[in-house]
């Protein structure tokens, strides 16, 4: 994870434009290069390697997915959304650069993600155009009405209202899990995976993406802002539906164990245990992380 995360960080540093006005470039770089766990890029690379290709083939996917994710974080922190002032241990983008710059840098990152994915696959000359186009479509669906945007709207609309467990799962499957799934699936696609392999990767990533959010919900009520690097207790303050709120902390933790087992089970169908090991360890890292 550390090595792949570092490689993606360096690739994104090269990919981010230096443009006028400089403030836009600074805002984009401020959030993209702020660090983080790089879970989605690592998912893309590990899935690509799982089906037999090198990490290099998935680097454009890894960078593009992280750009989309960063866009969602910038927009998520804004006053019209979650109104958070802290992200990854420092000021949120809109606090550091102002609201309109933050909004537009998020928009620019979303556009850059697809440009970088298309150009990157073409420049590598090892990813067939049909597979590159398929990856673009998957990522677009995950970023828009089929994923992050739909989940965010449902999340905001549910604040302060009774929310069923089914609706909560809809929110998290779209807001968080869909982008994780897209990262892994796109990695398997550009890696030349078969339809069966891609379906297994999808089911694995769906469980891991939901697991990530359940863990997030639990940490929000069991850790401090200093431990998390972001504002703790904000979901409760906003009267949002969460797994601990609906199930209690202990049952939410039991669900985490169930999701981890489901993710690991999907890897059993792959013959090469060594190639599957990074995804297995990644699932466990997500399950047992402390921030």
The shape is: globular
Portion in strands = under 5%
What is the CA-based Rg, rounded?
Answer: 18 Å
What is the CATH domain class? Mainly Alpha
Give the CATH topology: Farnesyl Diphosphate Synthase
| Number of DSSP E strands | 2
- Separation of the first and last Cα atoms: 16 Å
Helix content: over 70%
The strand line-up of the biggest sheet is 1-2
The averaged pLDDT comes out at 92
The CATH homologous superfamily is named Farnesyl Diphosphate Synthase
> How many separate domains make up the residues?
1
CATH architecture: Orthogonal Bundle
Question: What's the tally of helices?
Answer: 15
Main sheet makeup: 2 strands, antiparallel
Description:
The protein has 291 residues and is mainly alpha-helical. It has a single domain (2-288), classed as Farnesyl Diphosphate Synthase, CATH 1.10.600.10. Helices cover 74% and strands 1% of the residues. The protein is built from 15 helices and two strands. The protein has helices spanning 2-15, 22-32, 39-50, 55-76, 93-97, 99-124, 129-143, 148-157, 165-190, 195-222, 225-228, 234-237, 243-247, 249-266, 273-288, and strands spanning 86-87, 90-91. The protein has a two-stranded antiparallel ribbon with strand order 1-2. Helix 4 (55-76) packs antiparallel against helix 9 (165-190) and helix 6 (99-124) runs antiparallel to helix 7 (129-143). The radius of gyration is 18 Å and the shape is globular. The mean pLDDT is 92.
